[in-house]
């Protein structure tokens, strides 16, 4: 169930053993952690893949984009053929929100949203969805090449 508001990078204890600088997504928790030194992390509320669209694995950020345009991946076009082939930056219909960080090896991204009430739920086709203020905060803290681990 979506939760209103966001964690806005709440500083929390984190001892899962991931190296500092790693982004860890815990799907069942619907939380994203940016691991910091000293057994701590910044925690953010996220929306994750709905049933049948969730994934686990390791990747890395391979692109950073402010106010991105959006072209739906093939899986979304198959499921929703009426979705336009291209939605420009700034359009209220653009689901990418304020920023997006694409993940290597697939069609997924960590991105903002045009549906803030969906953050905190099982809502996406596999992308990690954040409040726009949170994606902008995380965007400024990480670089291309940052490791990303998605777990249940």
Please outline the helices and strands:
Blueprint: E1 10-13, E2 23-26, E3 31-36, E4 40-45, E5 48-49, E6 57-66, H1 74-79, E7 99-103, E8 109-111, E9 122-124, E10 128-129, H2 132-141, E11 147-151
Parallel strand pairs: 2-11, 5-9, 8-10
Antiparallel strand pairs: 1-4, 2-3, 3-4, 6-7, 6-11, 7-8
Summarize this entry quickly.
This protein is 11% helix and 33% strand. The chain contains two helices and eleven strands.
* Cross-sheet strand order for the largest sheet: 1-4-3-2-11-6-7-8-10
Secondary structure: number of strands? 11
Give the overall pLDDT as a whole number.
93
Silhouette: globular
Instruction: Count the DSSP helices.
Output: 2
As an assembly, this protein is single chain
Give the low-confidence spans: none
What is the CA-CA span between the terminal residues? Answer: 17 Å
Largest sheet: number of strands, sense, barrel closure? 9 strands, mixed
Structural class, from secondary structure content?
A: mainly beta
Strand content: 25-35%
What order do the helices and strands follow?
EEEEEEHEEEEHE
Radius of gyration: 14 Å
Helix content: 10-25%
């Amino acid at each position: 169930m979506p939760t209103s508001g966001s964690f806005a990078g709440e500083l929390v204890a984190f001892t899962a053993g991931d190296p500092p600088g790693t982004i860890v997504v815990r799907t069942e928790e619907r939380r994203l952690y940016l691991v910091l030194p000293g057994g701590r992390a910044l925690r953010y509320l996220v929306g994750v893949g709905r049933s049948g669209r969730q994934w686990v694995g390791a990747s890395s950020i391979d692109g950073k984009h402010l106010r991105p345009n959006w072209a739906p991946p093939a899986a979304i076009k198959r499921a929703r053929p009426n979705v336009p082939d291209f939605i420009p930056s700034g359009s209220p219909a653009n689901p990418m929100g304020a920023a997006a960080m694409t993940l290597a090896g697939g069609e997924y991204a960590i991105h903002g949203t045009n549906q803030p009430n969906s953050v905190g739920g099982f809502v996406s086709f596999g992308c990690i969805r954040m409040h726009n203020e949170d994606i902008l905060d995380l965007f400024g803290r990480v670089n291309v090449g940052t490791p990303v681990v998605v777990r249940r």
